[in-house]
Amino acid sequence: MTIKWNTSDIALACPRCKGFVADCNDKLECASCNLHFEIVAGQPVMIESGNVDFLKEEVKRTFSAINQSLEDKGLSRFATFNNWGFASLEQEEDEGDARRTNSLFIRLLLEVINGCELMGKKILEVSCGRGGNVNALCNFYGPDQVVGLDLTESNIAFCAANNRYDRAWYVAGDAERLPFFDDTFDIVLNIESSHLYPNVGDFYQESLRVLKPGGMFLYADVMDEADLIRNTAILQELGFHMVHCRDITANVLKAGETAFTNRMSALKGSFESEQDVLDWLEAPGTQRYEEMQQGKRTFHIWHFAKGESNS
Fold first, then answer.
1. CATH number for the domain including 222?
2. In angstroms, rounded to a whole number, what is the distance separating the alpha carbons of residues 62 and 271?
3. Is 19 part of any domain?
4. Structural domains of the chain, count
């Protein structure tokens, strides 16, 4: 199988030892520790076999079921975002525009970027899902290269099969063991996924490692107060400098309510019961939705900069 990867610009590294990997008999092999990695439909799968984590396997099963359900319903090519979205709180907002396909999700991406310069940059999106953000980045921002990494192989297969941009590349990989060399990217983007990582501190450490000195970590997620305090402290102790923080909980809740009917319809059949779908969507009436309404869990956007001396 020929690998579809632009190795001249952004080289893949062994996720365990960070050594060089080379194409070897339809697989990738690490020259240092001799680990082998599969190539599936041309896409590198940079995940160690036999390294099983229950939470990660559950995430993969869930998203694989969602992908299959979307395919069965003929909705697959229209569903490229998995996020809550962002809706304006102003009364004069055009409701028709708010309901337009994917507009709420693209608006969330725009709010996360918030003026950060992306033109000509090398960008990594960790947990890229079905590629909606990567597509939008290529379409609107003129980056040099964008890499989408996701734990779920069926997500990466969908992204690669529907990729329209010669500057976009996809790889299956673990957020806690990024398969790239130090100081590779100008921007690391992560939206609404880190709460699913068993060891989020490892993800923060890896994000710092693969960022170039002066690079930016653009980050958005929902957390309870304890996680918010702890995770912010971890990021700053690692050497990140916070340059922007914004609470968008109200905007996210409004977007979730606006898009709820379409998302519910798309996900029916992906889970064992309708209640499971509601819980996954954190729909009105569920415990997690109520916790957000009450301020026990909040959704923030952060920009963290890697210092020029961090390398």
1. 3.40.50.150
2. 8
3. no
4. 1
| Model pTM score | 0.93
Q: pLDDT tens track of the chain, all 311 residues?
A: 456 676 558 999 999 999 999 888 789 999 999 999 999 888 999 999 876 788 999 899 888 988 888 888 887 888 898 888 999 998 555 544 544 557 899 999 999 999 899 999 999 999 999 999 999 999 999 999 999 999 999 999 999 999 999 999 999 999 999 999 999 999 999 999 999 999 999 999 999 999 999 999 999 999 999 999 999 999 999 999 999 999 999 999 998 887 777 777 777 666 767 777 677 667 778 898 899 999 999 999 999 999 988 76
Residue 31 lies in a domain: no
Domain that holds residue 104: 52-306
How far is the C-alpha of 294 from the C-alpha of 46, rounded, in Å? 40
Contact by Cβ (8 Å): 188, 217:
yes
- Is residue 100 domain-resident? yes
243 contacts 219 by C-beta, under 8 angstroms: no
**Domain contains 240:** yes
